[in-house]
Amino acid sequence: MQAHAYAAHDHESPLAPFSFERREPGPDDVAIEILFCGVCHSDLHTAKGEWGGTIYPCVPGHEIIGRVIAVGGEVTTFKTGDLVGVGCIVDSCQRCASCHDGLEQFCENGFTGTYNSPEQAGGGNTLGGYSDRIVVRQGFVLRLPEGLDPAAAAPLLCAGITTYSPLRHWKVAPGQHIGVVGLGGLGHMGLKLAKAMGAEVTLFTTSPGKEADARRLGASDVVISTDKAAMAAVAGRFDLILNTVSAPMNLDPYLRALKRDGTMVMVGAPPEPHKSPAIFEMIMRRRSIAGSLIGGIAETQEMLDFCAAHGVASDIEIIPIAAINDAYERMRKNDVKYRFVIDMESLKDVASLAA
Ligand code: NAP
Ligand code: ZN
């Protein structure tokens, strides 16, 4: 089937209208009309080739909310008209130990990303959610729970699960002190989710202008990370720090902010490495640095259900697709409040102009 989209054609030109063919839905497939798609910093890293390995044309977008328009003959869990989500993963091998454990993001044969990823059956390179429709195996489609606004739910599919999963894995509980570094798409979901789990949450930010928003989003404390005295004052305070920063930085002041046995989980994925951390900060208090990658399909559904039950969604700024290049520029300046979401209705104007 024909799909209309916005694509990056190389690492420097602005994203521009693009049309291509999606596969017709097979027996196990769900065809989805995309209503909204969130804009993740990973989209920008990929579109601009910052991580290397981008195959052009590249259609980014992995925070997808849409409506089912067709299902294959073996699809039992979805029907036409259902509101559904698709996140960062559209397929995996289904045979390895990680897939067996519901950790498809760690598929030992390589999961299939929603964009810029080789398809399991070989051949194609996946094209993502900055488009009007997508076809996905039913096992990788999420149910949008009642009560969640479809546009504000879109960012949960990446920013939501990427922060929810480590908070659960490291067993965040009431009374714990959690730090979140960076107030962007991931960071604002980290604040909301850690608060909803009952923790005391502190935001570390380089942007003093974000303090009032951080408190509204759930932070009980805000530390301006460029203020050395303020950083020193929180030494030894945190059980867990979730680092969402998209650029290289000095990790040592954050390690010092951890308690004995505390962990800093890195979810931000800067294109260049961080300065090597000072090992003494780790050995003197048995502190750890860990990483975490999105979450599995079952956990993503659990996160959506948790958000519906706790009234958690993203704070969004809805944009037409033609504003995507300006949105990327604002993202580069840390000027995101706190996730751009593309209204895919705006693609219809572009498609009719192109026709
Ligand atoms: P974003 O909305 O652009 O937010 C990033 C925030 O990091 C900024 O708003 C800013 O917050 C802070 N920051 C940026 N540059 C900084 C610098 N030089 N020093 C200190 N702080 C800086 O990005 P996002 O969509 O949340 O994504 C964040 C990162 O996570 C990206 O690298 C993305 O690729 C990665 N990611 C990883 C996963 C995963 O599974 N691990 C999933 C999705 C995304 P302040 O203004 O508050 O300082
Ligand atoms: Zn993402």
Name the features.
355 residues, alpha/beta, 7-stranded mixed beta sheet, 6-stranded parallel beta sheet, 12 helices, globular, binds NADP nicotinamide-adenine-dinucleotide phosphate, binds zinc ion
Report on the structure:
The chain is α/β, with parallel strands linked by helices. Helix content is 26%, strand content 25%. It contains twelve helices and 17 strands. The protein has helices at residues 41-47, 97-100, 150-153, 159-169, 185-196, 211-217, 228-233, 252-256, 279-283, 297-310, 324-332, 345-354; strands spanning 2-7, 16-21, 29-38, 64-71, 83-86, 89-91, 112-113, 133-137, 142-143, 177-181, 200-205, 221-224, 238-243, 258-266, 288-291, 316-319, 339-343. The strands form four sheets. Strands 3, 4, 5, 8, 9, 16 and 17 form a seven-stranded mixed beta sheet that branches. Strands 12-11-10-13-14-15 form a six-stranded parallel beta sheet. Helix 4 packs across helix 5 (185-196) and helix 4 crosses helix 10 (297-310). The radius of gyration is 20 Å and the shape is globular. The two termini are 16 Å apart. Bound molecules: NADP nicotinamide-adenine-dinucleotide phosphate and zinc ion. NADP nicotinamide-adenine-dinucleotide phosphate binds at residues 40-42, 45, 158-159, 162, 182-187, 205-207, 210, 244-247, 249, 267-270, 292-294, 331, 334, 336. Residues 40-42, 45, 158-159, 162, 182-187, 205-207, 210, 244-247, 249, 267-270, 292-294, 331, 334, 336 line the site of NADP nicotinamide-adenine-dinucleotide phosphate (NAP).
